[in-house]
Amino acid sequence: MRSACSKTRIALIAALALAGYSAYRAAWHFWGVQQWSAAQSALERRDFDEARRRLQQYLSAWPSEPKARLLAAQTARRRGDMDEACEHLRAYAESDGRDRSALDLEYDLLRLQTRDLNDAKTYLARCFDDPAPAETPLILEAVIRGKIKMLQTAYQEGVNLRGGGGKEELTATLAAVDLWLRRRPPPADQVQGLVWRSRLHTLGACHDNAVADLRRVLELDPDHFEGRWLLATIVRDESPAETAKHLEILAARRPENFEVRYTLANIRRNLAQLDKARDILDELLASRPKDVSYLIERGEVALEQEQPEQAELFFRRALQLDPADARLNYSLSLALHRLGKDDEAAVLRDRAHRLKTEQQRPQEPTPPASVPPGDSGAPK
Q1: Taking a C-beta distance cutoff of 8 angstroms, is the pair 137, 186 a contact?
Q2: What is the pLDDT of residues 148-184, one digit of tens each?
Q3: Euclidean distance between CA atoms 186 and 90, whole angstroms
């Protein structure tokens, strides 16, 4: 009787252990499905940081899962982290079940997105000939981003993008963006396409079209940071008051973004809102007391508030950090002139003229970096 009871207890314990293990396995599987689903949802929203976090959690449990490795590589590339993308691709290449064609494509997209555009025409032709395949959006995105970087560099170097080869490249990229907008109806992708197109219109000197695209971006997504930043930037000359409103929204949303706040301070000064400009700059300088740009701008505010003594202090602090700044030398000369220090003011005025002349001389071209910085254009 005792032996039968012992056997019963053992059988019961074994059954409970098996049930517990099965429940654990089911919960683990359910957790993995949740991470995968959350990553997919984040990618649909173009929230690449959230997608990365979810995929990292998934891979912590299943590090050899080829599908997850490939998706993590694509996500890293789309975030602009090419080193991390390469790490995931190396892991993918070593995994069982890898797809060699998918691996080759992803390496090609890495090159395209970083301005190695030798195969861009071939890939674009493939997308236009048959836009249905699942990889078409990935190809279009990589080509568009790579071409925008290339066109931005050409624009900065003085290339006329409304004529010759520049116009051809601009037109081809616009056509790629239009295909993207037709193929990608999700709201986040529509917004991204409009942002790309606005950048291209700006490079092609189609200001009104660029503004219209960015206004549409904010209609679709009022919280879109890059779209609001770009709109604030390109309407600055025609409507500084509107620019200030956009920058106020951005600064409230991301107070840690010093570039937005500094730009807002500059706009406030240009609008003669000197107290507001001063307050912003004092806050910035409390965090970064040796930032030359902040010191110069704060000195300019002091000059416009008829406080040449304060202006002199800010300009001298900046001059210790950057004595070769032509604008700074000239601004300090103005402050000193107002204080009656005309001899030193004349020396600084002459130095400013000499520095400006030297800076206007043609410079030797700087070779482009092998991997350019990110293409968002918005301050992080």
Answers
A1: no
A2: 999 999 999 888 888 777 889 999 999 999 999 999 9
A3: 31
Q: Residue 96: in which H helix or E strand, if any?
A: none
Give 98's contacts (C-beta < 8 A, 6+ positions apart): 66, 92
Using the CB atoms, write b or e for 151-166: b if 16+ within 10 Å. bbebbeeebebeeeeb
Instruction: List Cβ neighbours of 322 (8 Å cut-off, separation of 6 or more).
Output: 292, 328
Coil, strand or helix at 369: coil
Residue 340 exposed, middle or buried by CB count within 10 Å (0-12, 13-18, 19+): exposed
Half-sphere exposure of 275 (CA within 13 A, CB side): 0
Q: Which CATH number fits domain 289-358: 3.40.50.720, 1.25.40.10, 3.40.50.261, 2.60.40.3600?
A: 1.25.40.10
Distance CA 130, CA 82 (A): 28
Quick one: CA dihedral 224, 226, 228, 229, positive or negative?
Answer: positive
pTM: 0.84
Alpha carbons 287 and 96: distance in angstroms, whole number: 51
The whole-angstrom separation of Cα 328 and Cα 152 is 29
Element of type H or E holding 119 = none
How many CA atoms lie within 13 Å of 216's alpha carbon, on the beta-carbon side?
17
List pLDDT tens digits, range 278-328: 999 999 999 999 999 999 999 999 999 999 999 999 999 999 999 999 999
Domain ranges for the chain, please list them.
235-283, 289-358
Helix (H, G, I), strand (E, B) or coil at 380: coil
| Lookup: tokens for 121 | 């025409």
